[in-house]
Specification:
4 domains, rod-shaped, Jelly Rolls, 453 residues, mainly beta, 47% strand
Length: 453
């Protein structure tokens, strides 16, 4: 019957500057290393962007080393191959079947560089480290699909020599400002227009990575296959990357009514600060922090005497509402104390509230009490009906307290009784109606209907 009422503060930050860790890239030997993928690329004349991080000292000038391919797809038919490479003057270049646009900034200085090319409606833009290098035009672009490769041209030549990391293929032409958003960080939550994304985080820098055979596509299912890498030692293997892996930080502040099952699958029964790392297939783990307050709410109730039921929850901040189970769990008006004084037979339950949590006890059946009077020569009350006062004659020392209750069991007036047995109770503040007078002793009670005129 437990009702969990929890409030949440949920903050999801995809790029959290304070939570970074080192990542890896791949070293290509310039001879036969490359990556192939079932990714089909972007065909026709559609908008697109390729971006990557590269580091090289290789000479890519024609006749002195030649073209060094970063990523490409399509076929060798004129106008149908889309190739992003390093070539003239060791600058980045976009080439389509012989035609192309070349940059002016040499990138073979042995430093890491973020490089990108965007294409939109015949316009090619080349970027180096977040700055527009060159913008030019190309006509007749009609790229064919398939044969996606990293580090080698689609016809098996012009291998890249150096390091590559963070290859991303978008189906939109990104601007310099859009590229700058994620150029130094991995992307944790993949946008819909990022069609292929290779983070190069499958291995350990400089270690024996011979068990690694594929490159995970974090934007889809087009995982790449590694070809001819030695995957051991300092070359033709995974190397340290300049990229900062950005974890997702997920914070929850929860107030739970009883045990709480968190996002990590663990069930917690005590209040506290809990932290965990939720790993995914890539390097962007979710750093999970749970600030949990567990409210231990006892919703049960017990019949503590012949004429009383008491809620077992004793926390001073708890509130109570007694319910009539025979009337659709309807709240009994005005009966909100921890202890319920029973005046008639029925089925009763208590709804307990504590620190935002609400729970209801099982119904308790009462069948041996009612409004009937318990007449006895030892219990004399007069006059009845009464106006201003009544007098009681009781056995000496038997009863020490009286209560006047309404028919819902709400105590309206109470007080002590004289042990001598003779008592007068003032009624001037009571409004006319039918009530129950109850006298209580250590071992027993007596009650009688009281009419006030």
């Amino acid at each position: 019957m437990n009702q969990t009422i929890a409030y949440r503060l949920l903050l999801l930050l995809c790029l959290l500057p304070s939570l970074y860790f080192a990542q890896t890239g791949l070293n290509f030997d310039g001879t036969d290393d490359y990556v192939s993928s079932p990714f089909t690329g972007i065909s026709g004349n559609g908008d697109r962007t390729i971006e990557a991080w590269i580091r090289t000292t290789a000479n890519a000038i024609p006749g002195q080393g030649g073209q060094r391919v970063i990523a490409n797809w399509g076929s060798m038919t004129t106008g149908t191959r889309f190739t992003f490479n390093v070539l003239w003057g060791n600058t980045i270049r976009l080439e389509i079947g012989g035609s192309g646009v070349s940059g002016t900034i040499a990138v073979n200085d042995g430093n890491w560089h973020h490089v990108a090319v965007s294409y939109k409606a015949g316009t090619v833009s080349l970027y180096v480290d977040g700055v527009l290098d060159v913008s030019g035009t190309l006509s007749g672009v009609n790229t064919s699909s398939g044969s996606f490769m990293i580090g080698r041209r689609v016809d098996g030549v012009n291998h890249f020599e150096g390091d590559i990391d963070e290859v991303r293929i978008w189906n939109t032409a990104l601007s310099a400002s859009q590229l700058a958003i994620n150029d130094s960080n991995e992307i944790c939550v993949t946008p819909s227009n990022l069609l292929a994304y290779y983070k190069f985080n499958e291995g350990v820098a400089g270690a024996n990575n011979s068990s690694v055979s594929s490159l995970v596509d974090d934007a889809g299912t087009n995982n790449g296959s590694l070809h001819n890498f030695s995957l051991n030692g300092t070359g033709s293997n995974y190397i340290s990357s300049p990229l900062l892996g950005s974890d997702v930080q997920l914070n929850e502040t929860i107030t739970a009514c009883g045990p709480y099952t968190a996002l990590n699958g663990q069930t917690y029964t005590q209040s506290g600060l809990y932290q965990d790392t939720l790993s995914n297939s890539g390097a962007c783990d979710t750093l999970y922090s749970l600030n949990l307050t567990v409210v231990s709410l006892d919703s049960s109730a017990t019949r503590i005497s012949a004429n009383q039921i008491q809620a077992n929850e004793s926390d001073p901040n708890a509130t109570y509402q007694w319910l009539d189970c025979n009337d659709g769990m309807k709240a009994i008006q005005g009966v909100r104390n921890r202890t319920f004084n029973i005046v008639q037979n029925g089925n009763y339950a208590v709804e307990v509230s504590l620190n935002g949590c609400v729970d209801t006890s099982a119904c308790i059946n009462i069948s041996n009490i009612g409004l009937q009077e318990r007449h006895s020569s030892e219990f004399q009350m007069f006059p009845n009906p009464a106006k201003d006062q009544i007098k009681l004659n009781l056995p000496v020392g038997h009863y020490n307290k009286y209560e006047i209750l309404n028919l819902n069991g709400q105590v309206l007036k109470s007080g002590s009784l004289s042990k001598a047995g003779k008592n007068t109770i003032k009624l001037s503040e009571m409004i006319p109606g039918i009530y129950l007078l109850r006298v209580n002793g250590p071992q027993e009670y007596r009650q009688s209907k009281l009419i006030i005129e």
